[in-house]
Amino acid sequence: MTVHLASTLVSPSDIVFTPAVKARQEAYGSRAGYAKFESTRGWESRVTPVLAEFIAEQTSMYMATANAQGQPYMQHRGGPQGFLHVLDEQTLAFADYAGNKQYITAGNLDENPKAQLFLMDYAHAQRVKIWGEAKIVTGDQDLIARVSSPDYAARVERVIVFTIKAWDANCPKHIPRLVKVEDVLPAIQERDQKIADLEARLKELERKLLR
Questions:
Q1: How do strand 91-97 and strand 85-88 relate by DSSP bridges?
Q2: Is residue 85 within 8 Å of residue 146, measured between CB atoms?
Q3: β-strands 114-121, 60-66: how paired?
Q4: Out of 3, 118, 141, 211, which could bridge 112 as a Cys pair, Cβ 3.0 to 4.6 Å?
Q5: pLDDT 10s digits, 117-148
Q6: How far from each other are the two terminal CA atoms of the chain, in whole angstroms?
Q7: Which of 32, 38, 37 is nearest to 10 (CA)?
Q8: 169 CB-near residues (< 8 Å, 6+ apart)
Q9: Which CATH homologous superfamily contains domain 43-169?
C-alpha cells in the first residue's frame, strides 16, 4: 500500500493544518492569526537561502515516518556538518549509513512516502520542521558521492531523497541552550591552563616565603 499526499493544498501549512487541527485552533483562539499568516506570507515550500544556510550547519536531525497502518516512527540521523544536502530548491538528500539493521524507516517509506524532518540547533535555540515525501535510492554512485563524506568513517547503504512540501521555523520557546563540546573545549582548556599557571606561581611564592 502506498499513501500519497493530497494535491489540493490551498496553503503549504494545510499539509498539517487539517480541518481537525483548524477546529482546535478555532476553539483556542489562534485560527484567525494563522489564517491571516497563511493569506500573507505563510509557510515556505521551497529552499530559501536562509534555510540552505541553516541546513549546511547541522550535524544531526530527526526523521519521522509512518507505516501503512499509520503507526509513526521517529529516528535520529546524523553525520558530518552539512550531511543533509540541498540538491535543488525542493529536494534534499542524505547518505543513510549502516546501523542496527532494523530498517524501520526504509520499510515505512516502501509503504508510505510521507515523512518529516526535524532539525534542532540547540546552541542558537532554533528549530526547523520540514514536511514532504521521501524515497530510498540505491546503486546511484554519482548521488552517493554527492551526499557522502570521504572523511566520515561509516558505510553508506542507501541515499534518502526528500521532496519538500512545506517547512516552518518555530519559535525558540522552551528550547534548552546547549553547545557542542568542541565549541567550548578550547575555552575550558585555556581556563585550566591559567589555573595551573597561577597555582604554580602560588607554590613558588610559598616556597620563597618559607626559606
A1: antiparallel
A2: yes
A3: antiparallel
A4: 3
A5: 999 988 888 899 999 999 999 999 999 999 99
A6: 88
A7: 38
A8: 126, 127, 128, 129
A9: Electron Transport, Fmn-binding Protein; Chain A (2.30.110.10)
Q: What is the pTM of this model?
A: 0.79
Cross-strand bridge partners of residue 120:
127
Q: Whole-angstrom Cα distance, residue 97 to residue 75?
A: 13
Neighbours of 91 (CB within 10 A): 15
Please give the single-letter amino acid code of residue 152: Y
Kindly state the cell numbers that stand for 210. Answer: 618559607
Distance CA 79, CA 95 (A): 9
Is 73:110 a contact under the CB 8 Å cutoff? no
Residues in the chain: 211
Cα separation, 19 vs 12, whole angstroms: 14
Q: Please choose, from the candidates 183, 94, 109, 187, the residue with its C-alpha nearest in 3D space to the C-alpha of residue 147.
A: 94
User: For residue range 84-118, what is the model confidence (pLDDT) as tens digits?
Assistant: 999 999 999 999 988 888 999 999 999 999 999 99
Q: Domain residues of the chain, as ranges?
A: 43-169, 179-211
**Which regions of 50-145 does DSSP assign to beta strands (E)?**
60-66, 72-78, 85-88, 91-97, 114-121, 126-137
Q: Is 160 exposed, middle or buried (0-12, 13-18, 19+ CB in 10 A)?
A: buried
Place of cell 512540501: 165
